[in-house]
Design brief:
Length: about 350
């Protein structure tokens, strides 16, 4: 079942809508055509009560600005591009320098998460469509992008991405939701237990978080989540990568590439909620909200602080175009970009 209602008006008078999907278990996903953003995700806990496990804003105005990327569909390119330029087919394309005045982050300040998308309601889902013209954000090619959210009766939130353009271009789309499996009663995610199926990361050079091109093993370092552990166990360790990012904000090189598989999980002993992340993509940005700093305007009056939530952003590796050993994000003209990520929820008893 999908319910449609008004969400609010933007500063230019455009009306945004909310779409609420409810499955047979009562789990709810709330979406908006403003940015194809995920607004709320209500998941049953150990007692059967529903908890909203994603951070977000109370009003449409919050999402019109959304500097944090709460719930966001990010494109054309998620994450960072060093020097704010890409070269495709021998042609250099300059991009906005919106990260430290030097680099490009999440395609710039005019991101897809702040655009109005066309919405089409499906059975237990909503498909959002955006037309991105040639030169948009600096990228070549007239592009058509589709993002479809589906909530299954198995308590899975499926996100399917499809895109194509009439010129060779970059596509690397992700969802930037901030998760806390204890919901609104929690101000910290550090006690929740994470697992990431990755033996390597792409380390960054400094606090600007541009990859060096190295593929570094995690074994024997605080970056290792191949065995489940509390997020906060080693987050403040004296290790270069954690010092640069103020915590975890790194691309993990996922194992078993080329398949659709389980790549990560998060578990709260307090709520009993267990979230599993599935994807067919090669990378995962694991981000512990190190740069949230008393973000106001949250749902039901919430103020979101540092390390209060965590992001699992499935992706191609950051700055891929400058590192030939990274999987390429260039998609040839007319070829379909297609990928899927699933956030699956269940309950573990004590």
């Amino acid at each position: 079942m999908v319910q449609t209602e008004q969400f609010g008006r933007l500063t230019n008078g455009t009306e945004a809508k909310r779409f609420t999907i409810v499955n047979r278990n009562g789990m709810k996903a709330v979406l908006t055509d403003l940015g194809a953003n995920l607004l709320e995700l209500w998941v049953p806990d150990r007692t059967g009560s529903l908890r909203d496990v994603v951070w977000g804003y109370e009003t449409a105005e919050g999402y019109e600005h959304n500097p944090t990327g709460f719930g966001s569909t990010i494109g054309r390119n998620a994450n960072r591009i060093g020097g704010a330029e890409v070269t495709i087919g021998g042609v250099r394309y300059p991009l906005e320098k919106n990260n430290n005045g030097l680099h490009n982050l999440h395609s710039g300040t005019k991101g897809y998460n702040k655009r109005m998308w066309q919405a089409r309601v499906e059975y237990q889902g909503v498909e959002f469509t955006l037309i991105s013209p040639d030169g948009d954000q600096g990228f070549p090619g007239n592009a058509e992008i589709h993002v479809t959210y589906t909530l299954t009766d198995e308590n899975e939130l499926k996100i399917r991405y499809r895109a194509a353009a009439d010129r060779d271009t970059i596509f690397n789309l992700t969802n930037h939701s901030y998760f806390n499996l204890e919901g609104e009663e929690s101000d910290s995610v550090l006690g929740q237990i994470a697992w990431i199926d990755a033996d390597f990361i792409t380390p960054v050079a400094d606090s600007r978080a541009i990859p060096t091109g190295e593929i570094r093993p995690v074994k024997g370092t605080p970056m290792d989540f191949t065995s489940p552990k509390p997020i906060g166990k080693e987050i403040d360790a004296d290790y270069d990568q954690l010092i640069y990012g103020g915590g975890y904000d790194h691309n993990y090189v996922l194992n078993r590439q080329g398949t659709f598989r389980s790549v990560a999980s998060l578990y709260s002993e307090q709520s009993g909620i267990w979230m599993e992340v599935w994807t067919d993509l090669p990378g995962l940005q694991f981000y512990t909200a190190n740069f949230l700093d008393g973000e106001t305007g949250g749902k039901r009056g919430r103020v979101y602080g540092r390390r209060s939530a965590v992001c699992f952003e499935t992706q191609y590796y950051p700055d891929a175009g400058h590192h030939p050993n990274f999987p390429s994000t260039v998609v040839p003209a007319g070829k379909q970009y297609e990928t899927q990520t699933v956030y699956a929820f269940s309950v573990k008893e004590k």
